[in-house]
Design brief:
- The complex is a heterodimer of chains A (616) and B (192).
- With 616 residues, chain A is an alpha/beta fold.
- Chain A is built from 20 helices and 23 strands.
- Chain A has 4 domains: 4-235, 3-Layer(aba) Sandwich (Rossmann fold), CATH 3.40.50.970; 240-355, Rossmann fold; 381-540, Rossmann fold; 553-613, Alpha-Beta Plaits, CATH 3.30.70.20.
- Helices cover 35% and strands 18% of the residues of chain A.
- In chain A, the strands form 6 sheets. Chain A has a 7-stranded mixed β-sheet with strand order 3-2-4-5-7-6-12. In chain A, strands 9-11-10-13-14 form a 5-stranded mixed β-sheet, sandwiched between helices. In chain A, strands 15-16-17-19-18 form a 5-stranded parallel β-sheet, with helices on both faces.
- Chain A starts with a helix and ends with a strand.
- Chain B has one domain: 3-Layer(aba) Sandwich (Pyruvate-ferredoxin Oxidoreductase, domain 3), CATH 3.40.920.
- Chain B has helices spanning 16-29, 77-87, 104-107, 116-126, 144-154, 163-173, 176-190; strands spanning 4-11, 34-40, 48-55, 69-74, 88-97, 129-133.
- The two termini of chain B are 27 Å apart.
- Classes of the chains: A alpha/beta (616), B alpha/beta (192).
- Chains A and B meet through strand 8, helix 10, helix 13 and strand 21 of A and helix 1, strand 2, helix 2, helix 3 and helix 4 of B.
- Strand 8 of chain A pairs antiparallel with strand 2 (34-40) of chain B.
């Protein structure tokens, strides 16, 4: 069996099939990256999984999950001004959290260099929006490398590291979901002995205090470094032209995974426009763009999400008196969703009908396939919590969701959580809603999010005496992104809340459903901020650990069919996915899903749910 | 080789990751150029998982266009139907397991459960060849992926791949008793 940790630490050059996220870790190893930080979030958490596959004593760099992306950026920065090449990685919306810090990076002389790896999520596969972070990089004056494949992700990380070290700055490696998660065979280089940890901080390397006129001088330096980036792109041939004999004067400018979509679509055409693929998307290499525009009759700019390239390229054409027809975004739909091969085909077909591209018919709904909405796992403590909390709520109460597995409480059959903003926003929103409001307001917050961005909202509610019930859904891990540890491992949430002087802090295990219902009722009667900690370990993580133990016996629940009167409370109100509803209304158990936790038992008014033991 | 697209679908907890990785490695051992990508939502059991593998020299993006999968693999019956309708190509093949992990609307009584007969009807309408894997002999649901893999290898559904490519792939990914058990089951289903 090949072990990922061994593969990533190979000494000699080798070939291996790896995921984009894994290939980046090999690039960290080869470039002598010394400090890596992150806050978990899809599409990038497998970078951390790959890092953790290397035993700590063998790993040539320090790694931590920081409390949030901002802190992660600061730790990476601190290590980098000490002379160590550092890397911080996080998901798309993580950049919002980190921005106060990251926007300062280009002003600083970062002697070790930083690579910022950001996983954007076109199509919002696992995010609350599909924000295009390319909008940020012009303001932050950051150099951005955009790979199209896992192979390029590996190579471009090395380019970004080289540039960041050379120019003593920060550079961004912009990934998107399906570049992170794609797998292919990649040729890797040698791993030379890693550099030693540096402690070279010296304020003379700065200035590092961007106040008054200094901030303006530092900005000048940031502008100069960006110009160097254009030269770097040329030296490394990051922006390349794929020429065709049958281009008919047509050209396409694109980048990232969209480039591969274009190649797929053009496999079937006689006319093949030339393609300018941009590997460095900020700053743009003006020279290659001017040459490309000037040498084509018509140029289509194919970019996913926003029209960042289009606006810059059109402005460049105007300034240089280029009359080439430039086509960019045409309708609203062009700004939405991933540029999959299907979407690209549609766009190319509509732009140039002569290419003879015929998009497949729109989905004809020949067959009615039931949707499969995301759901909480069997045994999830959140399900027991929602089932119990619902009994304490009245129809007029307002419930505020937050980010985490517990967000799924908004779905049937619980329907708890009516607004969702972003990490840690629930208490603040609840406080505003509670002002002069006769309705009661209940906010939900996960435990990793509590530390990430939840605390300021809670402290604000204490300080400004807001009348809110906060329910902290504590499952002991960052569950949704794959069970990463969080600060709750060292710091007690209950202790911390008590330390803040909150008058009423109640807690219980969510499987104690009657107690939880009572505590929530009690909390909602309290004037001012009251917190209920609804605690139960993540059962996916817990069950996986239990199964590895010797002598583990898998329990299941079973239905006493004679006692069952088919009220269907188990399947319709409790809603565990382990229940099977037969055509005749009879309820059975899916033994592949049921973990035998028994949390469903209180849901049955006939006490028809019992345990059934089965040997592993 | 001519482009060959494989669309794999099922739900979290069924071992689709291992199935997909084994296929990709077996294809690579057969000397065929390939790229793959997984799409999954949250880290939870029972959510939709889709994996795609694309083979051939004229392949670029790991994403497959609508209705252009030569081979659709359905580990769960509702997802098999979804995969068949959205990705299946006329003249292609669907290999599926008659395993149901009921989605919420079915459990709430709002939708009808998909059956094996529905799949066969849909295949007839869309011109796709159905192959149902008989799980009668198999008790451990965590190894259903090997039943599917064995069926694919045995029927040579991926051009250019041979049984030893699959064995090499499994040896890359598994060890010890788990490897032995998986290989045994794979062989059993490969032999029909």
């Amino acid at each position: 069996m090949k072990k990922l940790g061994d593969i990533l630490m190979e000494n000699e050059p080798f070939e291996e099939i790896l995921m984009g996220n894994e290939a980046i870790v090999r690039a960290m190893v080869e470039t002598g990256t010394k400090v890596v930080t992150s806050y978990p979030g899809s599409p990038t958490p497998e970078i951390a999984t790959a890092i953790n596959s290397i035993p700590e004593e063998k790993r040539p760099f320090y790694f931590e999950f920081s409390v949030n992306e901002k802190v992660a950026g600061e730790v990476a920065f601190g290590a980098a001004v000490n002379g160590n090449l550092s890397c911080v990685f996080f998901k798309s919306v993580g950049l919002n959290v980190a921005l106060d810090t990251v926007v300062q990076f280009s002003l600083m002389n970062i002697i070790g260099g930083i690579v910022i790896v950001v996983g954007d999520d076109p199509g919002a596969n696992s995010s609350q929006n599909e924000q295009d972070n390319r909008n940020i990089y012009q303001m932050a004056r950051l150099t951005v490398f955009e790979p199209a494949s896992p192979k390029e992700a590996y190579i471009y990380y090395k380019h970004a590291a080289e540039f960041a070290k050379k120019e003593q700055t920060a550079a961004v490696l912009r990934l998107t979901t399906h570049v992170c998660h794609a797998r292919e065979k990649i040729g890797f280089d040698r791993f030379n002995p890693p550099p030693l940890f540096r402690s070279d901080f010296n304020r003379d390397n700065g200035p590092y205090i961007p106040l008054t006129s200094m901030a303006l001088e530092m900005k000048g330096e940031a502008i100069r470094k960006l110009k160097q980036a254009q030269r770097f792109a040329r030296t490394k041939q990051l922006n390349t032209i794929l020429s065709s004999d049958t281009n008919q004067g047509l050209g396409i400018i694109t980048s990232g995974l969209t480039y591969l979509s274009v190649l797929d679509v053009l496999e079937t055409t006689q006319t093949r426009p030339d393609i300018l693929k941009l590997g460095m998307i900020n700053p743009l290499d003006e020279k290659i763009l001017i040459d490309f525009l000037s040498s084509h009759k018509q140029v289509l700019i194919l970019e996913e999400l926003d029209n960042i390239l289009e606006l810059q390229i059109k402005s460049l054409a105007f300034d240089n008196g280029i009359n080439t027809s430039i086509i960019g975004k045409v309708d609203d739909d062009d700004f939405i969703g991933e540029y999959t091969p299907d979407k690209t085909l549609k766009k190319l077909g509509a732009t140039w009908p002569d290419l003879g591209l015929n998009p497949a018919d729109e989905d004809t709904e020949l067959f009615d396939v039931p949707a499969r909405p995301a759901q909480m796992c069997p045994g999830c403590g959140h399900r027991s919590a929602f089932f119990a909390i619902k009994k304490a709520l009245s129809a007029s109460d307002i419930t505020i969701a937050d980010i985490g597995c517990h967000t799924l409480g908004f779905l049937p059959p619980y329907n708890i959580g009516e607004i969702l903003m972003c990490m840690g926003a629930s208490t603040g929103m609840a406080s505003g809603l509670a002002l002069e409001n006769s309705k009661r307001v209940v906010a939900f917050l996960g435990d990793s999010t509590f530390f990430h961005a939840g605390l300021p909202g809670i402290i604000n509610a204490v300080f400004n005496r807001h009348d809110v019930t906060l329910i902290v859904m504590e499952n002991g891990t960052t569950a949704m992104t794959g069970h990463q540890d969080h600060a709750g491992k060292s710091i007690s949430i209950e202790g911390l809340l008590n330390g803040l002087g909150i008058e009423q802090v109640l807690s219980c295990d969510t499987y104690s459903q009657e107690k939880l219902t009572d505590l929530v009722r009690q909390s909602m009667e309290h004037k001012g901020l009251s917190v209920v900690i609804a605690r139960h370990p993540c059962m996916l993580k817990f069950t996986r650990a239990q199964r590895k133990k010797t002598g583990y016996v898998q329990k299941h629940i079973s239905i006493d069919q004679e006692a069952c009167t088919q009220t269907h409370a188990c399947v319709e109100q409790f809603g565990c996915p382990s229940f099977i509803r037969n055509k005749d209304g009879r309820i059975d158990i899916n033994l592949d899903l049921c973990i035998g936790d028994g949390s469903c038992r209180p849901s049955c008014p006939e006490q028809a749910i019992g345990f059934d033991r089965e040997e592993k | 080789m001519k482009t060959f697209n494989i669309y794999i679908t099922g739900v979290g907890g069924q071992g689709i990751g291992l199935l997909s990785q084994t296929l990709l490695r077996a294809i690579d051992y057969a000397g065929i150029q390939a790229i793959a990508v997984d799409t999954h939502g949250l880290a939870q059991r029972g959510g939709v998982v889709v994996s795609r593998i694309r083979c051939g020299e004229a392949v670029h993006s790991p994403l497959i266009m609508k209705k252009s999968a030569n081979l659709v693999l359905g580990m769960e019956i509702h997802e098999a139907m979804r995969g068949l309708v959205t990705a299946g190509k006329e003249g292609g093949t669907l290999v599926f397991l008659d395993v149901s992990w009921q989605p919420l609307p079915v459990r709430l009584g709002q939708n009808k459960e998909i059956t094996s007969e529905d799949i066969l009807d849909a295949c007839q309408t869309t011109g796709i060849i159905p192959i149902k894997v008989d799980l009668g002999r198999l008790k451990d649901s965590r190894m259903q992926n090997m039943a599917l893999l064995g069926t694919i290898a045995g029927r040579k559904l991926i051009p250019g791949t041979e049984p030893h490519h699959f064995f090499h792939a499994l040896e890359d990914l598994l060890a010890g008793r788990v490897l032995t058990e998986n290989k045994r089951l794979f062989t059993e289903y490969m032999s029909g």
